[in-house]
Amino acid sequence: MTTAPKPINFAEKMATFDALWSPRVIAEMNDYQFKIAKVEGEFVWHQHADTDEVFIVLDGELTIHFRESTVQLRAGEMYVVPRGVEHKPAAERLCQILLVEPRGVVNTGDAGGELTADRDVWA
Amino acid sequence: MTTAPKPINFAEKMATFDALWSPRVIAEMNDYQFKIAKVEGEFVWHQHADTDEVFIVLDGELTIHFRESTVQLRAGEMYVVPRGVEHKPAAERLCQILLVEPRGVVNTGDAGGELTADRDVWA
Questions:
Q1: pTM here?
Q2: Which of B54, B66, B74, B96 should be substituted to probe chain A, the one whose Cβ sees the most A Cβ atoms within 10 Å?
Q3: Which chain A residues are Cβ-neighbours of B64 within 8 angstroms?
Q4: What SS3 string covers chain B?
Q5: Number of separate domains in chain B
Q6: ipTM above 0.90, yes or no
Q7: Residue B22 lies in a domain
Q8: Mind listing the pLDDT tens digit of every residue in chain B (123 residues)?
Q9: Is the minimum CB–CB distance between A103 and chain B shorter than 8 Å?
Q10: Which CATH number characterizes residue A45's domain?
């Protein structure tokens, strides 16, 4: 190792962008990516047919709506949305989240639309 | 979905055990596991030949020693140890961490020894 290794600091990475619902990659592990996002308001209903998706709340509160239930997450909590399950993330106030999913996952899954973000944008 | 989905709360899961260097699974995503651990003192030098390994610090401070450098992580920071890289985690005081790695990874990697923990023990 030729350069001193540096920690990846969530708050520092969050400070590099303002866009909502626009995940930024901060790390890769094997073929998985760790992405941070700022969210507020309601996202679109969508699903990921081929992969589970992890949501970890770093700051604020996140609601994940399912067709027949919801789950509320606060800072220090996580949830795994199973593959193929329709969900709609939402936050009443600005919320900071960490996502873990395979490289190449599109944020809007099967839904597409104007909230679809570029993939592989790094913070 | 027949039962109300529940968030996975890191602090609640941490409260279910005291053993040091003994990771507990709290969630699975595809073929990956999220594990929490309490650590204090020095672990053993080891490597994982087949996988990267993610360390996220939830509380306290963690030092990861490499053969020619070290990285210091505090709460809100993460690091990805690349596959095949020898490392030795250590913490001067009690530290709480979240690990992400493929199902089946042994905590002591290639090193073995008395700190080797059972796999797939859930919190």
A1: 0.96
A2: B54
A3: 5
A4: CCCCCCCEEHHHHHCCCCCECCCEEEEEECCEEEEEEEEEEECCCECCCCCCEEEEEEECEEEEECCCCEEEEECCEEEEECCCCCEEEEEEEEEEEEEEEECCCCCCCCCCCCCCCCCCCEC
A5: 1
A6: yes
A7: yes
A8: 557 899 999 999 999 999 999 999 999 999 999 999 999 999 999 999 999 999 999 999 999 999 999 999 999 999 999 999 999 999 999 999 999 999 999 999 999 999 999 988 999
A9: no
A10: 2.60.120.10
